[in-house]
Design a protein that fits this description.
The protein is α+β, with helices and mostly antiparallel strands. Helix content is about 25%, strand content about 45%. It has one domain (about 1-125): Nuclear Transport Factor 2, Chain: A, CATH 3.10.450.50. It holds the Pfam family NTF2.
Length: about 130
């Protein structure tokens, strides 16, 4: 079954807003990064699960300063097969990133955005590995 134009437009608009805001906050307002998560969100960092907004906030504040330059992003709406409603958005982001005083590196980031209480869009769990 074809994906409705409204779902595609919503996915594009949501992803565009998310990319613009998430990386700006990551680079310049790290203290607000936890706002993209909810209290039940979990992140796995180098094999260690981290859960809860306070713990996530401590993790984000402990990371080196970054500067992202987004070159492209692509999103794909994912529908619930039983209802044909949007259940999540798969988002891929590509660009350049400087971490701390290191030189600029290429980065590829995949995120999954999901519905929370059928209204808000939140980040779904992800595993990170420090390189």
């Amino acid at each position: 079954m074809a994906i409705a134009k409204e779902i595609i437009d919503f996915s594009n608009d949501t992803s565009d807003s998310f990319v613009e805001n998430y990386y700006k906050v990551t680079d310049y307002q790290r203290e607000n990064l936890k706002e993209f998560y909810n209290d039940s969100s979990a992140v796995v960092w180098n094999g260690t699960p981290i859960q809860g907004l306070d713990s996530l906030d401590n993790l984000f504040r402990s990371l080196p300063i970054t500067l992202h330059e987004i070159q492209s992003w692509d999103c794909h709406p994912i529908q619930d097969v039983s209802t044909n409603e949007l259940s999540s958005i798969l988002l891929n982001v590509n660009g350049l990133v400087s971490i701390g005083k290191q030189s600029i590196n290429e980065f590829k980031d995949g995120k999954t955005l999901g519905k929370h209480k059928n209204k808000d869009i939140v980040l779904l769990p992800k595993t990170f590995k420090k390189l």
